[in-house]
């Protein structure tokens, strides 16, 4: 062997800066639960969010047959009765519209009071208006007033981001508000909505979304795809704007590559074909939503948007079926890896991490009962 200790040290020195960059930029999957959906409700209608589960169950009763296998019926109904909304977003942007300052201030105060008065979902946040010039001051005012009233954990959704400068401004805003309200440094976090082609592919030919993550300096928790704004900005006719359009798939593939290994989570968008009206209309919309949710899950997007209580049955039906369908295979492969058994598939450590993560996601959302997965949560967390 011809290499000496100083050769090892020289290579360490040469790669030290890159080692530090990898550790900071690609820390790996963020620990903890990721919600399976985000429910967007306009700020002036937020008072009714606690009725969504009741409304979803009523739709199931009014429009049989149920949009899921009988084996899942009890579990889905239980979810709708106990935790119908996993992640609630109070919307001050497109769903709310443009109001004068007094009216939006009043909506902020009302929404904060509603959340503080009683049970709320495991995850909550607000979507402020865009940081583009016409709505910037209103966005800042809403966030400032919200913090005055609501100090529980929440996330800020920043819409219509088009470049790193807006993300850098969001970071500076978070830092300023943390100092002003005496919050710990790094407490305020935000999601970036990908609703413009410029957020995916920049004028210089680079993948803008990767630069957005870097600009967030560790404060970005997620990338949320905006189906209709993005499709419209890309020139897709209204009748063909959809989560499964090729334009959407390209944007989400770039998002996925940019976010891999960073701890930034992904969320697919929504469908605006709502399960309302006649039995035929409801069942057709359920079939579409179920297919799109399953499609997103199979492509590694474990979260999406829901816009109406009647979408909740198919959100949980598709999600629960996805995890139930793959549970046995995941358990078998993970057990072989854990026990170092020979089998028909030779799994790598990265695959074992993904298998453990899959089972943890199923446990977190209620799709998989804890006594069926063959591993304790602690074992799965270690493997993941």
Q: Helix coverage percent of residues?
A: 40-55%
Domains (count): 1
Structural class: alpha/beta
The CATH class name reads Alpha Beta
Query: Which runs of at least 5 residues are low in confidence (pLDDT < 50)?
Result: none
CATH superfamily: Phosphoenolpyruvate-binding domains
Q: What is the fold-level CATH name, i.e. the topology? A: TIM Barrel
What's the total helix number? 13
Mean pLDDT: 95
Intertermini distance: 37 Å
Q: In percent terms, what proportion of residues is strand?
A: 5-15%
Task: Please name the defining characteristics of this protein.
single chain; 384 residues; alpha/beta; TIM Barrel; eight-stranded parallel β-sheet; 51% helix; 10% strand
Description:
The longest helix has 28 residues. Strands 7-6-5-4-3-2-1-8 form an 8-stranded parallel β-sheet, with helices on one face. The chain is globular and about 75 Å long. Helices cover 51% and strands 10% of the residues. It has one domain: Phosphoenolpyruvate-binding domains (TIM Barrel).
Topology:
Elements: H1 5-25, E1 37-42, H2 52-62, H3 70-82, E2 87-91, H4 101-116, E3 123-127, H5 136-149, E4 155-158, H6 164-181, E5 190-194, H7 208-215, E6 220-225, H8 227-233, H9 246-259, E7 265-267, H10 279-298, E8 304-306, H11 312-339, H12 349-365, H13 377-383
Parallel strand pairs: 1-2, 1-8, 2-3, 3-4, 4-5, 5-6, 6-7
Helix pairs in contact: 2-3, 3-11, 4-5, 6-7, 10-11, 11-12, 12-13
